[in-house]
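Hey all, quick one. A colleague (J.T.) asked me to put the inosine 5'-triphosphate job into the tracker so the inputs and the structure tokens live in one place instead of scattered across chat threads. No bug as far as I know, just bookkeeping. Sequence used:
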Amino acid sequence: MPHTLLIATTNADKVTEFRKALADLHYHVQSLSDYTGYPYIDEDGLTFAANAYKKALGYYRHFNKPVIADDSGLQVPALNNAPGIYSARYGGPHATYDDNNRVLLRNMCHLCGDERQARFVCTICYIDEQHIRYFTGQTDGLILDRLTGRHGFGYDPLFYVPSLQKTYAQLTTSEKNRISHRGKAIQRLKTFLQAIS
Ligand code: ITT
């Protein structure tokens, strides 16, 4: 009987990436969209780890099964690491991905060259009855001055990876998982899951 692992995110785009990356694991992978009536968890932490822990703990307590939660975002050093933990709401409380991209482009319009460096960070928190563990991944890149590519989500069309000469949005889900912040964190999670199962 495979173990069950619940991906506790309300973001369907993240679920797509997790499902693809975890497909070869001997786990029955669920997501919040398999359920209704789960609690809303406010992300009021000051770090990716604090928010990932809060989400994982809240959903672990509600569902009482092994849970992972992801908190992730884009950091631009020239903007004092904004949008950071506020990446989902950079363009306002109900901002769409397009709104966020527009605000980022506007706030960076005076920056050029190395000033356009950025990094994506992902922290996953895993909780079961015996463990609380964190897995982090980071990928460096540059913010373009226009949207490029049609895949992915969020800031993907603006995030250019120099080693691939492509944006995240020009990669398939598998290609993105191979080099992305989330893909790296998931690989570390998988090593851990294989060790405990
Ligand atoms: P959950 O909290 O329910 O997981 P969320 O979308 O609110 O969903 P976060 O609080 O972690 O998730 O915010 C992450 C935001 O950072 C996300 O909405 C995007 O704007 C951005 N982001 C994170 N990973 C990304 C990726 O791989 N590609 C593009 N944008 C990403």
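Adding what we noticed when we looked at it: The chain has one domain: 3-196. The chain has a mean pLDDT of 97.
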